[in-house]
Amino acid sequence: MIAPLLQVNNLHKSFVLHLIDGRTIDPIQNVSFSVDSNQHFLVWGRSGIGKTSILKCIYRSYLASSGEIWFNSDQFGMIDMVQADDSMVLKLRHREIGYCSQFLKVLPRVAALDVITEPLVRQGMPEPDAHDIGREWLSQLGIAQRLWHASPVTFSGGEQQRINLGRAFIASPRLLLLDEPTASLDAGSKQIVVDMIQRAQQRGTAVLTVSHDLDTLAKLADGQLAL
Amino acid sequence: MTAPTWILQASGLNKQYGPGCPRCQQFTGPAHNNSQCPICNTVHACVDAGFTLHQGEVLGIVGESGSGKSTLLQMVNLATPADSGHIWYREPRTPDAEPVDLLQMDAYRSRHFRNDRLGIVYQRPELGLNMRFTVGGNVAEKLLLANWRHVGNIRARIRELMEQTELPPERIDDAPHTFSGGMLQRVQIAKALSSSPSLLLLDEVTSGLDLSVQARVLDLIRRIQWEQQMTMLLVSHDLGVIKQLARRTIVMKNGHIVESGLTDQILEDPQHPYTQLLVSSAL
Amino acid sequence: MSTTPEQLYNFGFIDEDSKREVRRQILKAIALPGHQVPFASRDLPIARGWGTGGLQITMAIIDANDILKVIDQGDDESVNAVNLRRLLQRTTGVTTTVDTTAASIIQTRHRIPEEPMRRDQILVLQVPMVDPLRWVEPNLERATVMHGESDYGRMWVYMYESVVKAGDLRIATQYPVIVAGRYMMDTTPIPRWDVMRLHNAEALFLFGAGREKRIYAVPPYTTIEPLQFEDFRFKTEFVAGQICARCGAQDTFLTSHFVVDTTNPAGGYWRTSCSDTSFCDKRVLVNTTNQEAPQ
Question: What's the pLDDT score for residue B1?
């Protein structure tokens, strides 16, 4: 039996707030689940329950307090994201693990086309080729052509999030972590997201989504975890 | 197994000003919010600092005044002699060669290394430039130190560097005082890049610049880093600058490294109380 | 018993202990060509800035058998040269001469004699400013470290700037050179014409600065490399068509002075002649002898 792409065992995260008399907050306690390649796995629950924290622990934006997060890497074998050193994490983020936050962190003065093609260029694709692909994605995402060379600073929340998602999907990582992908989108855009997830799975990407939007996403999920 | 990609491995770097006494450790450090021993007045500018720097990456060093970040940078720059410690260096152009401990090199080799393999940009242009020479002369200094002896070739290279750093090449013979602050930072960058260094050291390079100018200089640094895959050590007290450029960061306080990790992890999930304070203080 | 004023002074004016110190520093300077050696410069009856450094060197090394020549800008008869020569003559009793080839010690200000010197001769040069780095590093401590570490990069920027500002190397005197491949040295205000005379010479060159309290030396057969670029090389002065009005020479360093017309206040003219007066005199003598010789 092939090992799962991602195996989370007894994940526990606790924050120590030194600025407020050192009290602790434990958003996640004892979470376990696994995701196979090509699977779309949904973690759902109400706001504030710690779903985003799970994603961040996997991506290593948070340091897990205890537990194991085994990632079956193409290049390096089984890696425990909790124990891995920084350079290993950076290597995995470079090609194998992608992350889409809930809101686009806008770098002013960078054009939308450059934002969306950044992962491709970072992996070494020549800019003209990356831009060709980027333009296709932008039109599929419904971003008007006249905006392609503008910075997303002035875009609507929905447009920003669509670019954010495009950037996450464009380089086909092996595991894609999506944080509330449909939250700021209208119905039409939500459908775009659904399409993107399905097509990503066809290309071999496993998707781990965290959301409270069961209506849109539950039917897509091959596996679920309710918090 | 891929070959090691580290370019610099620093460990145990110490720098103190003063004789030191047995009680120093009791009274200095981040827990005591103090760098100077009240008994012997020794300033412990940098205590047991170490880090690894990989080829092509930007490592941020963040801390407030007196944290030791500039001292650490100047020890890597081989300008401030470390009291103890090692700085192992692997030359990217000869990956099979043995690593060298920069702190064991004699003065002559140190100077040659600093001129040839390192580039440094300071917060204040007058620290990195000589205001009495022309802009071109300043950019040329490292080339002349590396025994370039053909004025025509030197000037061609200066113009090339000026274009790379978005400076008008026709102003090659102008005096530095006719340049704005942002332009002078770019002159420093041009000078630093002149020897095609393997490591760029940046000390608060945008602090004190107007906001729009700061943005341009940061964009330039980001572009150079990207185009040349330049390894950088970036010192700043501004978390915004660190966030834009550095993928990994170390946090310093009172001469000690209190936390180190991925930049996004430091900013989103700071562990050390001081880091939490810093992050929460960002505007 | 009356004593003459000269008998009240030690041979060579300064006391033997002072001479010993100067000689020791001279030896050190010879051992480290181009390196500036500090010495305790004594008070003399001549003010600082008038050749006290060169004077102390001459006083320290001269003995009763030496034959002394003193020149100032090549001229044996300037006020300066006359006074220095007189002081030395009266306190030592040595024979003095204007003939470069006959002298054993030549003390000079700002020129090297045209006639090449031999290995039994010593040239003592008077130095106003000692450190070639002063243009780029006014701080003495930092400049000393730069010399110690052979860190002369900034001086090269200075040379580059000179080319850029004037279109060519425009350093007229005190041309910086590298001595024996190691120290950068100020050649004192000798013209560029004389700089290469220091290179691989037979004679010993001693440099003394009384105000700056430094001695340095260029021993015989030492390499002197003037700072230059591949596309802007070190050149000596040359003005086409200039000749000496006295002897007709076209291959010596020339100086000019204004000749006043006593009959016509608005008149007068510039006259060029050899800077090295004794050499010029010799050539005049040769010309006259040739003219008088039977055909």
Answer: 36
SS3 of B131-159: the string is CCCCHHHHHHHHHHHCCCCCHHHHHHHHH
Write the residue in C136, C149, C161 that is nearest to B111 by C-beta: C149
Instruction: Say if CB A207 and CB A201 are below 8 A apart.
Output: yes
- Please answer whether residues A27 and A53 qualify as being in contact, where contact means their C-beta atoms are separated by less than 8 angstroms: yes
Structural domains of chain A in order of their starting residue, each with its CATH number: 6-226 (3.40.50.300)
Mean pLDDT of chain A: 90
In terms of CA atoms, which chain B residue is nearest residue A110?
Answer: B219
Q: A171 with A119: CB under 8 angstroms?
A: yes
pTM of the model: 0.89
Position C220 scores a pLDDT of: 97
Q: Tell me the one-letter amino acid at B134.
A: T
Which residue from C149, C150, C156 is facing B144, i.e. has the nearest CB?
A: C156
- Indicate the average pLDDT of chain C: 92
**Helix, strand, coil percent values for chain C (each to nearest 5):** 30, 20, 50
Question: Each residue of C188-231: pLDDT tens digit?
Answer: 889 999 999 999 999 999 999 999 999 999 999 999 999 999 99
3-state secondary structure of A30: strand
The Cα of B138 is separated from the nearest Cα of chain A by a number of Å equal to: 31
Bridge-based pairing state of the strands C269-274 and C204-209: unpaired
User: In this complex, is the C-beta atom of A90 within 8 Å of any C-beta atom belonging to chain B?
Assistant: yes
Instruction: Name residues whose C-beta falls within 8 Å of residue B223's C-beta, 6 or more positions apart in sequence.
Output: none
Dihedral sign (CA A161, A165, A168, A174): positive
**What is the predicted ipTM?**
0.89
Mean of pLDDT values over C166-187: 92
Report the catalytic residues of C.
34, 244, 247, 274, 280
User: Domain-by-domain residue ranges, chain C?
Assistant: 5-226, 238-295
Where chain B has pLDDT below 50, the residues are 1-2
- Sorted by sequence, the CB contacts under 8 Å of residue C64 that are 6+ apart come out as C11, C92, C93, C94
A23 close to B229: Cβ distance less than 8 angstroms? no
Tokens coding A138: 């932008």
CATH class belonging to B6-281: alpha beta
Contacts of B111 in chain C (CB under 8 A): 149, 151
Measuring CA to CA, which residue among C198, C217, C213 is closest to residue C30?
A: C217
| Pairwise CA distance, residues C125 & C108, whole Å | 5
Closest to C222 in 3D by CA, of C204, C208, C248, C195: C204
DSSP 3-state assignment of A179?
strand
Q: Any idea where the domains of chain B sit in the sequence?
A: 6-281
Q: Which of C161, C158, C188 is nearest to C172 (CA)?
A: C188
Is B136 within 8 Å of C164 when comparing Cβ atoms? Answer: yes
CB contact under 8 A, B269 and A56: yes
Smallest CA-to-CA distance from A32 within A66, A60, A63, A3 is with: A66
Beta carbons within 10 angstroms of residue C166's beta carbon:
10
Helix (H, G, I), strand (E, B) or coil at C216: strand
Query: What residue type is assigned to position A146 of the chain?
Result: R
Q: List pLDDT tens digits, range B2-34.
A: 456 899 999 999 999 999 999 998 899 999 999
> Which residues have CB under 8 Å from C127's CB, separation 6+?
C53, C54, C186, C188, C207, C208, C209, C212, C214, C216
C5-226 fold: Rossmann fold (3.40.50)
- A47 compared with C168, residue with greater pLDDT: C168
Tell me if chain B has a CB within 8 Å of the CB of A89: yes
Best of B106, B109, B133, B173 to substitute, by most chain C Cβ atoms within 10 angstroms, is: B133
